[in-house]
Amino acid sequence: MRVFVTGASGWIGSAVSAELQAAGHSVLGLARSEQAAQTLQDRGLEAHRGSLDDVESLRAGAAAADAVVHLGFKHDFSDMAGAARTERAAVEAFGDVLEGTGRPLLLAAGVALLCPGGVVTEEDASPFSGPQAPRGGAEALALSYAERGIRPVAVRFAPTVHGAGDHGFVARLVAVAREQGTSAYVGDGSNRWPAVHRDDAARLVRLALEDPSAPSVVHAVAEEGVTARTIAEAIGRGLGLPVESVAPEAAADHFGWIGAFFAGDMAASSVLTQQRLGWTPSGPTLLEDLHAGSYFATAAV
Question: Can you tell me where the transmembrane regions are (predicted)?
Fold first, then answer.
């Protein structure tokens, strides 16, 4: 297949693109700059100039491909409403182009906040729908496209997609620990964070793309939930810092924007995904990646 991938040069997207290439697919990657285009070309990918804000570039990319894997997102925490509008407009553009073709539309979603305090499964519908919802209600919107002759698949990623080179949530927690001089967790630290290695996540995306009978919701989750205290203790060991509890009301001051996420309890299961797609995560666990030391070798952003 020729696959149009948004976010192809990103943390997850670059691994997905490599996985698709290795399986014999060709990748048309969205590139918002000449530098990004060159990066994609250096990896043997075809670059398609445009951006998430350029709806016409998204339409053209989708029209030129056999499938769309939408992994790009504007992670602008200062304007999440704007990011949600951009996300919804992108999914609407893909829906317009793919209508009636039967082609796959895979999009990145998440397990975070879907079932606070419980364990969310693939059969639990997202409570977020409509333009004002987080991420513009894009998951519910995309899944509704099955009625329009499209094969939608929501890939719900764990909040922690880890591995050497990760610059996401865990890297930020490491940076906060450096800044504060202590590795902290919120309350008793029993709240749970699901995790998945980047390579395992990429392989799942490929399997869901290739299997015409793939379920409409899959969970890129290898570990159902690693407790926040366990994560903080591993970071403390890695940096040689003390580990302490922070009161919930002080989390925002201590952690900044990531405090609300790190305080959340968001366990998630992938049992059904593993059974239905024959996907067995085999990469290092989150703690193994932390023990390996790459998170502590360089400063996180």
Answer: none
Residues 125 and 140 in one domain: yes
The CATH number of whichever domain residue 269 belongs to comes to: 3.90.25.10
Q: Between the CA atoms of 82, 267, 142 and 163, what dihedral angle is there, to the nearest 10 degrees?
A: 70
Please state, in angstroms and rounded to a whole number, the distance separating the CA atoms of residues 259 and 191: 13
* One domain for residues 24 and 92: yes
Residue 299, pLDDT > 50, answer no
Amino acid at position 174, single letter: V
HSE-up of 198 (CA within 13 Å, CB side)? 18
Count the residues in the chain.
301
Beta strands 160-162 and 267-268, pairing class: unpaired
Q: What range defines the domain where residue 186 resides?
A: 161-195+224-297
H runs (alpha helix) in 160-219 = 169-180, 198-210
Domain count along the chain: 2
Weakest mean pLDDT among 19-23, 78-82, 204-208: 78-82
Residues 128 and 172 in one domain: no
Rounded Cα–Cα distance for residues 4 and 97 (Å): 12
pLDDT surpassing 90 at residue 146: yes
Residues 16 and 29 in one domain: yes
- Is residue 155 scored above 60 in pLDDT? yes
Task: Indicate if the alpha-carbon torsion angle 111, 114, 115, 121 is positive or negative.
Answer: negative
In this predicted model, what pLDDT tens digit does every residue of 245-262 receive, in sequence order? 999 999 999 999 999 899
Q: Which of 97, 39, 111, 37 is nearest to 68 (CA)?
A: 97
φ, ψ for residue 33, nearest 5 deg: -150, 165
